[in-house]
Design goal:
Layout (H helix, E strand, L loop, with lengths): L5 H4 L6 E3 L4 H11 L3 E6 L2 E7 H9 L26 H11 L3 E6 L2 E7 H10 L2 H19 L1
Parallel strand pairs: 1-2
Antiparallel strand pairs: 2-3, 4-5
Length: about 150
């Protein structure tokens, strides 16, 4: 059975900023690039993520000044997935951790990201045969988990 892998659906165009960057600069970059998150790095290694949800819950709702740095408001530790995992695994990780953006990590570097929007696109854009394959994967996985 053919599987759909994370590497086949992930977005490769990522934005990264250092933990010392202000949230104001992060917001500007997110607006310029029209993206919903930024990977936060320390010593050029990924350590967290800043999402639109973080802006609502950790910044605006807490009335944080725009001058504070990403390290104070980022979501950390970073929850990630290997590019060779299936989209089913990605969906499970996102569901269990209640997240909508899942960075893809290879060799200690973030090489892409999978979002809930990407998973919905797979389901809504795919042909009937592609949809059937995905449904078969889900059913097979559910059957294995029940035994």
């Amino acid at each position: 059975m053919t599987h759909t892998f994370v590497k086949d659906v992930m977005i490769n165009d990522l934005a990264t900023l250092d933990v010392s960057t202000s949230i104001k600069d992060a917001a500007k970059l997110m607006d310029e690039k029209n993206i919903g998150c930024i990977i936060v790095t320390k010593n050029q290694l990924p350590v967290g993520i800043l999402t639109e949800r973080d802006f609502v819950k950790r910044i605006t709702a807490k009335e944080k000044p725009l001058s504070i740095v990403l390290e104070e408001v980022m979501s950390s530790p970073l929850i990630e997935i290997d590019p060779n995992e299936t989209v089913w695994e990605a969906a499970q990780i996102m569901k269990i951790n209640n997240i909508h953006k899942l960075p893809v990590k290879k060799d200690n570097q973030i090489i892409g990201i999978v979002t809930t929007t990407d998973l919905v696109k797979i389901c809504s854009v795919g042909s009937d045969s592609e949809m059937r394959k995905i449904c078969d994967q889900i059913i097979t996985r559910m059957e294995k988990e029940n035994f």
